[in-house]
What does this fold into?
Amino acid sequence: QVQLVESGGGVVQPGRSLRLSCAASEFTFGSYGMHWVRQAPGKGLEWVAYMWFDGSHIHYADPVKGRFTISRHNSQNTLYLQMNSLRAEDTAVYYCAREYNYMMDYWGRGTLVTVSS
Amino acid sequence: QSVLTQPPSVSAAPGQKVTMSCSGGDSNVGRSYVFWYQQLPGTAPKLLIYDDDERPSGIPARFSGSKSGTSATLAITGLQTGDEAVYYCGSWDISLSAGVFGGGTKLTVL
It folds into this structure.
């Protein structure tokens, strides 16, 4: 069964940085695109970023463009999200998800990021 | 303001059928596959329908999806109390080069 486990969340002050990780297992990680999706407390799903299986194409949502960077290490089966210049509105549960036809099939359980002074 | 439009809530009695809509545009629903996700309270989203009308293995046939033009519909028959959840539609927007979701529909089984 596909497993995705996010880590790296926590409480961070506005303007600081945080790096999230997503450890993948039970599938050939290097053959799949990967997404980050977030969900603010009590709100709906918001797509954040998407990277092709080989890293050759990357897409970002406008609210995070220029501040967040998605990356991956295929030999370590790990996806990352580097988040810089964090704002209060970035507070959310961040999910990593495997790509299927440009959307998501399997999701991790998420990691909570709280941006607060 | 979500790119895809879903009704905030729907309700029906156990055993009944409910449908929920997802309205988009030419650059997303009209030209990309629609996916439906079920999010039970306190849990991660789970894939319910992919490629407009396909069910992953393990998803009961009570759940079905359809699409016409720029609108999609999720139908659930034989409602159970365990179906109470928020249901999200999603699609890839080829103009934005971005994933887009609806705001979610909360299903209440009365």
